[in-house]
From TrEMBL:
Gene3D superfamilies: Ankyrin repeat-containing domain (1.25.40.20)
GO CC annotation terms, alphabetical: cytoplasm
PANTHER family named among the record's database cross-references: ANKYRIN REPEAT AND PROTEIN KINASE DOMAIN-CONTAINING PROTEIN, ANKYRIN REPEAT-CONTAINING PROTEIN-RELATED
Short name of any one Pfam family annotated for the protein: Ank_2
Name under which the protein is recorded: Uncharacterized protein
UniProtKB keywords: ANK repeat, Repeat
The ANK repeat ranges on this chain: 7-35, 106-138
Organism: Amphimedon queenslandica (Sponge)
Entry-linked InterPro entries: Ankyrin_rpt (IPR002110), Ankyrin_rpt-contain_sf (IPR036770)
Protein backbone atom coordinates (compact mmCIF):
# COMPACT_ATOMS: atom_id res chain seq x y z
CA UNK A 1 0.00 0.00 0.00
CA UNK A 2 2.69 2.51 0.93
CA UNK A 3 5.32 1.14 -1.47
CA UNK A 4 8.55 2.91 -0.67
CA UNK A 5 7.15 6.21 0.64
CA UNK A 6 9.35 7.73 3.34
CA UNK A 7 8.24 7.26 6.96
CA UNK A 8 7.38 10.98 7.11
CA UNK A 9 4.81 10.61 4.33
CA UNK A 10 3.23 7.61 6.06
CA UNK A 11 2.99 9.56 9.34
CA UNK A 12 1.34 12.47 7.50
CA UNK A 13 -1.13 10.13 5.78
CA UNK A 14 -2.01 8.69 9.20
CA UNK A 15 -2.37 12.19 10.66
CA UNK A 16 0.09 11.47 13.47
CA UNK A 17 1.56 14.89 14.28
CA UNK A 18 3.72 13.57 17.15
CA UNK A 19 5.49 11.10 14.86
CA UNK A 20 5.81 13.79 12.16
CA UNK A 21 7.51 16.09 14.71
CA UNK A 22 9.82 13.32 15.93
CA UNK A 23 10.86 12.32 12.41
CA UNK A 24 11.60 15.94 11.50
CA UNK A 25 13.57 16.48 14.72
CA UNK A 26 15.66 13.41 13.84
CA UNK A 27 16.47 14.68 10.36
CA UNK A 28 13.63 13.64 8.07
CA UNK A 29 13.42 15.78 4.94
CA UNK A 30 10.40 18.14 5.18
CA UNK A 31 10.31 18.11 1.36
CA UNK A 32 10.14 14.31 1.05
CA UNK A 33 7.83 13.01 -1.66
CA UNK A 34 5.40 10.12 -1.71
CA UNK A 35 5.97 7.18 -4.02
CA UNK A 36 2.45 7.18 -5.49
CA UNK A 37 0.01 9.56 -7.17
CA UNK A 38 2.44 11.91 -8.84
CA UNK A 39 5.06 12.03 -6.11
CA UNK A 40 3.47 14.85 -4.14
CA UNK A 41 5.70 16.52 -1.57
CA UNK A 42 4.95 16.19 2.14
CA UNK A 43 3.29 19.62 2.29
CA UNK A 44 0.75 18.72 -0.40
CA UNK A 45 0.04 15.36 1.29
CA UNK A 46 -0.74 17.23 4.54
CA UNK A 47 -2.89 19.79 2.71
CA UNK A 48 -4.92 17.05 1.02
CA UNK A 49 -5.49 15.53 4.47
CA UNK A 50 -6.59 19.04 5.59
CA UNK A 51 -4.30 18.77 8.60
CA UNK A 52 -3.39 22.35 9.54
CA UNK A 53 -1.23 21.23 12.47
CA UNK A 54 1.01 19.12 10.26
CA UNK A 55 1.11 21.85 7.59
CA UNK A 56 2.34 24.28 10.28
CA UNK A 57 5.01 21.86 11.54
CA UNK A 58 6.29 21.19 8.01
CA UNK A 59 6.55 24.92 7.26
CA UNK A 60 8.30 25.52 10.59
CA UNK A 61 10.82 22.79 9.75
CA UNK A 62 11.60 24.18 6.31
CA UNK A 63 9.11 22.68 3.86
CA UNK A 64 9.27 24.64 0.60
CA UNK A 65 5.87 26.17 -0.31
CA UNK A 66 6.85 26.30 -3.99
CA UNK A 67 7.70 22.60 -4.39
CA UNK A 68 5.10 20.70 -6.35
CA UNK A 69 4.83 23.18 -9.19
CA UNK A 70 5.12 20.50 -11.89
CA UNK A 71 2.71 18.04 -10.30
CA UNK A 72 -0.97 17.81 -11.14
CA UNK A 73 -1.89 19.73 -7.99
CA UNK A 74 0.41 22.68 -8.68
CA UNK A 75 1.96 24.45 -5.70
CA UNK A 76 0.86 23.77 -2.13
CA UNK A 77 -1.13 27.04 -2.20
CA UNK A 78 -2.88 25.98 -5.39
CA UNK A 79 -3.75 22.65 -3.79
CA UNK A 80 -5.06 24.36 -0.63
CA UNK A 81 -7.08 26.79 -2.75
CA UNK A 82 -8.83 23.85 -4.41
CA UNK A 83 -10.12 22.77 -0.99
CA UNK A 84 -11.10 26.33 -0.08
CA UNK A 85 -9.57 25.83 3.38
CA UNK A 86 -8.97 29.44 4.41
CA UNK A 87 -6.90 28.53 7.50
CA UNK A 88 -4.37 26.53 5.48
CA UNK A 89 -4.32 29.25 2.80
CA UNK A 90 -3.55 31.90 5.45
CA UNK A 91 -0.81 29.72 6.94
CA UNK A 92 0.87 29.13 3.58
CA UNK A 93 0.86 32.85 2.81
CA UNK A 94 1.91 34.14 6.25
CA UNK A 95 4.33 31.43 7.42
CA UNK A 96 5.35 29.94 4.10
CA UNK A 97 5.46 33.14 2.06
CA UNK A 98 3.68 31.26 -0.74
CA UNK A 99 3.36 33.01 -4.11
CA UNK A 100 -0.32 33.97 -4.50
CA UNK A 101 0.14 34.38 -8.26
CA UNK A 102 1.96 31.13 -9.10
CA UNK A 103 0.51 29.46 -12.18
CA UNK A 104 0.13 25.75 -12.86
CA UNK A 105 0.46 23.91 -16.17
CA UNK A 106 -2.94 25.29 -17.29
CA UNK A 107 -1.98 28.87 -16.31
CA UNK A 108 -4.42 28.74 -13.38
CA UNK A 109 -3.57 30.66 -10.20
CA UNK A 110 -4.67 29.90 -6.63
CA UNK A 111 -7.42 32.50 -7.16
CA UNK A 112 -8.97 30.38 -9.95
CA UNK A 113 -9.03 27.38 -7.64
CA UNK A 114 -10.50 29.35 -4.73
CA UNK A 115 -13.26 30.72 -6.96
CA UNK A 116 -14.03 27.18 -8.18
CA UNK A 117 -14.14 25.94 -4.56
CA UNK A 118 -16.84 28.50 -3.78
CA UNK A 119 -15.08 29.76 -0.65
CA UNK A 120 -15.53 33.52 -0.36
CA UNK A 121 -13.09 33.52 2.58
CA UNK A 122 -10.36 31.88 0.46
CA UNK A 123 -10.98 34.31 -2.41
CA UNK A 124 -10.85 37.28 -0.01
CA UNK A 125 -7.57 36.12 1.58
CA UNK A 126 -5.92 35.72 -1.81
CA UNK A 127 -7.14 39.11 -3.06
CA UNK A 128 -6.06 40.80 0.19
CA UNK A 129 -2.59 39.31 -0.29
CA UNK A 130 -2.13 40.54 -3.84
CA UNK A 131 -3.70 37.90 -6.07
CA UNK A 132 -4.02 39.24 -9.60
CA UNK A 133 -7.46 39.21 -11.20
CA UNK A 134 -6.22 39.69 -14.77
CA UNK A 135 -4.61 36.28 -15.36
CA UNK A 136 -6.37 34.19 -18.02
CA UNK A 137 -6.32 30.38 -17.82
CA UNK A 138 -5.84 28.14 -20.83
Amino acid sequence: YHGVSPALIIAIEKGNIDIVKLLLEKGANPNATECKSGSNPALIVAIKKINIGIVAVLLEKGADPSIGFNTYDGTPLQCASKTGNDNIIKLLITKGKADVNAVDMRNCTPLFNAVKSGSIEAVDILLTNGARTDVVSE
